[in-house]
Input
Amino acid sequence: MSVEHLTFENSILRLDEILKQLEGNKVDLTTALSQYEEGVRLLKNCHRILETAQQKIEILRGVGTHGEPMVEPLEVH
Output
């Protein structure tokens, strides 16, 4: 499965696995570089997922006269 199809949670779990392997110094340089590159792809995937979620978040500003929610996009500073 490609990184882009992993869930946020699975991406974080895989990043944790990679980190433990790299911190343990039990991999050769070629493997370490490959894992580093995978980690970068995983981080980008997590960032993409978070951006998508953020775009969907709306702030409830009240209730309209007919009971409908009054919402506006979340502003991030």
User: Anything to note?
Assistant: The chain has two helices and two strands. The chain has a mean pLDDT of 89. Residues 3-73 form one domain. The longest strand covers residues 58-63.
